[in-house]
Structures are given as C-alpha cells and as structure tokens.
Write a structure and sequence with these properties.
mainly beta
C-alpha cells in the first residue's frame, strides 16, 4: 500500500519463491489512512482482437498457493 497521495506503493510477484516481477512507485490510493485492499481480481486473456489469435486447443490456467501479504514475505 502506498502513503496517501504518494507514489511509493510496491507490487511484487513471486513464482516458486523467485521474484519474477516488481512494480514500484505505484499509487493504490490518493486519500485515506484507513483504506485497505480487501479484494483481488485475477483475469487472464489469451489472444488479441481477431480470430487469428484464437487458441486451437482447449487450455486453462491454474492458480495454487496464491497469497497476498501485508508485509513483504521472506522469500529466498
């Protein structure tokens, strides 16, 4: 979470204990000291804007052991 009105929020993504993505200077909120993130929405998109991008086989994505931390996790 960021300090209200400041771009000091951080998002980190880990896969199998290894950080694979980090975004810093993120602003989740502009005001309010008591605001919290209370939901997580995941959406996966495959393809583009035309049928040329369509997958020709059945596919799926599986999320396991998904965790949201309020403090940085201790990952190797």
């Amino acid at each position: 979470m960021n300090t209200p009105g400041q771009r000091n929020g951080v998002i980190r993504q880990f896969v199998n204990g290894k950080m694979v993505h980090e975004k810093t200077n993120y602003m989740f909120r502009q005001v309010g000291n008591n605001l919290q993130i209370d939901r997580l929405f995941l959406q996966m998109m495959y393809g583009g804007a035309s049928a040329d991008w369509a997958n020709n086989v059945a596919s799926w994505i599986e999320y396991r052991n998904l965790r949201v931390y309020t403090d940085p996790p201790s990952c190797p």
